[in-house]
Design goal:
Layout (H helix, E strand, L loop, with lengths): L11 E5 L3 E12 L2 E13 L5 E2 L2 E2 L2 H15 L5 E6 L4 E9 L4 H15 L7 E10 L6 E10 H13 L3 E7 H13 L10 E7 L4 E7 L2 E8 L3 H12 L3 H10 L6 H27 L7 E5 L8 H9 L3 E3 L7 E2 L5 H7 L4 H7 L5
Parallel strand pairs: 1-6, 3-16, 6-10, 11-14, 14-15
Antiparallel strand pairs: 1-2, 2-3, 4-5, 7-9, 8-9, 11-12, 12-13
Length: about 350
């Protein structure tokens, strides 16, 4: 699913969040009948405060400058990029259309149906669709995922890339980048437990997104306004630290002995309550779809002890989503640094994988 076409050229997956820019470039080879991926370039850099607010670009010059710096530090010479619109800016619907349509017939039918499902005027949005498969309720129809985003949001992403000397070859949606990463790199991992119904919990700086994936396809997404920045502020206030120091010490766990009980556990409990609520909402609308596995991703996924805490509170097996677990790495990739940040690169990795669609 992409709001602009895909590509087979060298492609940079660039994730622009509210606080940082993250970049990945991948290549692929065949090994014993399986795809083997390699990280050829990666880099990340912080964004100036306020340059992206509520997932909307406010300062195009600052974001473009950050992208330029990250590309330079990555060492990549690729000029094509894939970026993503935040989940909150995407309208998605699963619609049913007749089975057996040709590609052109399907495109024509979707364009006719889109007007009924997208509240904005079609000339004000960018939209795309993906055929999921046969409908469970009617064998003569197929389920089709329709996704749309406001045109100005997409145009802003294209602009910041162009100002950084890049071309937006793919504009995706964050949730489908995560879905793609899961499909390609995680679901067949022996450690994934062969679960058909999973939830990927993307814990960012300001928001947490709960994505339910059933049979490899996202079926439900819900956003909550809680993220790692809240824990950083709690640490800052409790121990009288500057914001930068609080963030560093949160990541490396260098905090007083009472931190886990007084700050981390209450924070994770709030996360767990929202996760449980999202799963209950989903299960109430989809009979019998019990979630078998939780995957944590995003910047907070590496917090010390978070998997055990969430698992104890939710009662579902929890593991970290590491998109690079089975990859190889180019000689110029700083492996230890990439490993430290691995869960935060899930969206960027999903975007980089669009090169091979």
């Amino acid at each position: 699913m992409a709001l602009l076409p895909k590509t087979q050229q060298r492609l940079l997956g660039i994730d622009i969040s509210s606080t940082a820019v993250k970049l990945i470039e991948l290549s692929r080879s065949e090994s014993k009948g399986h795809h083997e991926y390699r990280v050829d370039a990666f880099a990340s850099g912080n964004l100036p405060p306020g340059s992206v607010d509520a997932r909307k670009i406010k300062d195009t010059a600052a974001v473009s400058e950050a992208i330029t710096e990250v590309v330079s530090r990555s060492g990549s010479s690729a000029k094509q990029a894939a970026v993503a619109v935040s989940g909150a800016a995407v309208i998605s619907r699963v619609i049913q259309l007749p089975a057996g349509l040709s590609e052109l017939e399907m495109e024509s039918m979707v364009s006719l149906e889109a007007d009924h499902y997208i509240p904005q005027r079609l000339d004000e949005v960018r939209y795309d669709f993906d055929v999921i498969g046969p409908s469970q309720h009617n064998p003569e129809t197929v389920d089709v995922l329709l996704a749309a985003a406001r045109g100005d949001v997409v145009d802003d992403l294209i602009m910041v890339l162009e100002n950084a000397g890049l071309t937006a070859q793919v504009v995706d949606a964050e949730q489908y980048a995560i879905e793609h990463c899961y499909q390609e790199l995680v679901q067949f991992d022996p450690d994934s437990g062969n679960a058909n119904n999973v939830a990927v919990i993307d814990i960012g700086a300001n928001t947490m997104d709960v994505h339910v994936i059933v049979d490899s396809n996202i079926r439900h997404t819900r956003e909550y306004h809680i993220g790692g920045r809240q824990l950083t502020q709690d640490i800052q206030n409790a121990y009288n630290l500057e914001p930068e120091e609080a963030e560093v010490r949160k990541i490396n766990g260098d905090l007083p002995g009472d931190y886990r009980e007084t700050l981390l556990q209450p924070f994770v409990k709030r996360l767990a309550q929202d996760i449980r609520g999202a799963l209950q909402i989903y299960q109430a609308s989809d009979e019998g779809a019990n979630i078998q596995q939780l995957f944590l991703t995003g910047g907070c996924a590496n917090l010390t002890g978070i998997t055990d805490l969430v698992e104890n509170l939710i009662g579902i097996p929890v593991r970290i989503l590491d998109p690079f677990a089975s990859m190889k790495f180019g000689k110029n990739v700083h492996l230890s640094k990439l490993r430290e940040q691995a869960p935060a690169f899930t969206v960027a990795c999903g975007l980089a994988l669009r090169r091979f669609d």
